[in-house]
Amino acid sequence: MKKNKEVIISGAGPVGYLAALNLANIGVSVTLLEVTEKIADDPRAGTIHPPTLEMFDKLGLADTLISRGYVVSNYHYRDRKTGLIANFDLGVLADDTRYPFRLMLEQHKVSGIIDSELKKFKNFKLLRQHKVKNVQQEEGGVLVEAETPNGVTEFRSDYLIGCDGGKSAVRRYMNVEFKGFTFEERFLVVTTPYDFAESGYAFTNYISDPKEWCALFKVPGKDDSGIWRVVFPTDPEQTEEYIFSDLAIESRLQGFHPKKDPFNVIHRNLYVVHQRVASRYRDGRVLLAGDAAHVNNPLGGMGLNFGFHDVINLTNKLGKILLNGADEGLLDLYDRQRRTVAEEYLQRQSIENKRNMENKDDKSREAFHKELQAIVSDPAKVHQYLRRAAMLEGIERERSIT
Ligand SMILES: Cc1cc2nc3c(=O)[nH]c(=O)nc-3n(C[C@H](O)[C@H](O)[C@H](O)COP(=O)(O)OP(=O)(O)OC[C@H]3O[C@@H](n4cnc5c(N)ncnc54)[C@H](O)[C@@H]3O)c2cc1C
Questions:
Q1: How many CB atoms lie within 10 A of CB 39?
Q2: Mean pLDDT, residues 314-337
Q3: What is the pTM of this model?
Q4: How far, in Å, is the centroid of ligand 1 from the Cα of 373?
Q5: Residue range(s) defining the domain that contains residue 284
Q6: Structurally, how many domains does the chain consist of?
Q7: Given this model, what pLDDT does residue 1 score?
Q8: Where does the pLDDT of residue 5 fall: very low under 50, low under 70, confident under 90, or very high at 90 and above?
């Protein structure tokens, strides 16, 4: 098969977009195949952590992202009954990163920014309404079949990256296990313009409760005037119709933040939450990244960031292989590095975050709250804690794997 130093990416979600940009920037030709007609703008991830901003900085986009989002230098851990437990000040990371804060910006806007940047590259092609259906590995390359409005079309490339989300067609082709579990309860995301900051909330808040924890954060919204998203667990017995009813949503919001007037709810979204990691990220010339490789609950805002970290690692290695003749063993290193941190950090931390917020045992919940208070009052402890929460430790761990 003819080698033309080209990579195909299945899926133009935020992770596929970033993979394409880094490859195009390095000088590798990229074809991005995406099933949908346009970037989906439903409410999903909205948090960008410091190491991710450092990666975007290398591509000249950090300032653009920052100008579009909210720079959030502290976040709250709260208890629904007793209020503020701990205020985490990310400023303690000032010596560790140029970006000692979280950036709140919706993921579809990040995709849009990358999409605009990619227009500058002649070695990049985005083909929408192209659904990857079939993959075959041939001598020295990959054959990808995509369903298009004009029938099935074949594409050939040196490598294929599956960035096609939690239900990845590429992962199915690779026939790898997606090990883990699915939570019984679905997560409800309610969006309102009501300004919780007036009541002392930070722009990001994790609020524990044995009956109904919630997470509350502010993102810029459609017209950049600011909207708040509240994430709640739901009872598996309740129907979607009931969960989405005005009455049920109003009573959930009033239950956690009572006020005189009803809330203006502008969006409601219910989704199934999984904790899974693919058992392999590589099969020959086919690779996985982002949600195609790992999925997790959103508490801590890490999943999408992890996907971004995957593709920066992977595409830098592909660049070395395709342009400098480096050994393909680098792709096994990608698998070892990124799968290990997905298991050690992403899964462990996100599961632990949820467990702490829903803890039903009064004694251990109190002990955990005391532990958090001890952490924030000790500069060395809070520094160590936030290095992990801000995902700096995960990147360091990845680099330690050789
Ligand atoms: C409803 C929902 C709400 C979420 N909320 C949060 C949240 O509040 N906080 C948080 O941190 N995370 C949240 N997440 C997770 C976060 O959105 C993901 O981690 C993130 O989208 C991962 O990006 P990705 O590019 O890997 O995958 P995706 O964003 O899923 O992108 C995959 C892309 O591949 C395309 N595609 C799929 N199959 C094919 C195919 N066969 N051929 C071609 N293209 C294909 C899809 O159309 C899509 O554009 C949420 C996820 C969902 C589904």
A1: 19
A2: 97
A3: 0.96
A4: 35
A5: 6-76+98-180+276-357+391-400
A6: 1
A7: 47
A8: confident
Percent of the chain clearing pLDDT 90 (strictly above): 96
CA triple 65-70-73, angle to 5 deg:
115
CA of 310 to the centre of ligand 1 (A): 15
Residues in the chain: 402
Q: How far apart are CA 297 and CA 288, in angstroms?
A: 19
Name all residues whose Cβ lies below 6 A of ligand 1: 10-16, 33-36, 44-45, 107, 131-132, 163-165, 169, 269, 271, 290-291, 298, 301, 303-304, 307
Residue 371, token pair as written in the block: 């532990």
**How many angstroms does the Cα of residue 308 sit away from the middle of ligand 1?**
12
Distance of CA 84 from the midpoint of ligand 1 (Å): 32
* pLDDT tens digits, one per residue of 252-278: 999 989 999 999 999 999 999 999 999
Residue minimizing CA distance to atom 31 of ligand 1: 13
Sheet holding 274-278, edge to edge: 178-182, 274-278, 294-295
Residue 229 lies in a domain: no
CATH at 19? 3.50.50.60
Nearest in space to 296 (alpha carbons), one of 331, 334, 344: 344
- Percentage above 70 pLDDT, the chain: 99
Please say whether the beta carbons of 327 and 70 come within 8 A: no
| Separation of alpha carbons 132 and 215, rounded Å | 35
Q: Which of 126, 164, 216, 228 to mutate to test the pocket of ligand 1 (most atoms within 8 A of CB)?
A: 164
Question: What whole-number distance in Å separates Cα of residue 86 and Cα of residue 382?
Answer: 11
The token pair at 357 is: 């917020």
Q: Tell me whether residue 50 is in a domain.
A: yes
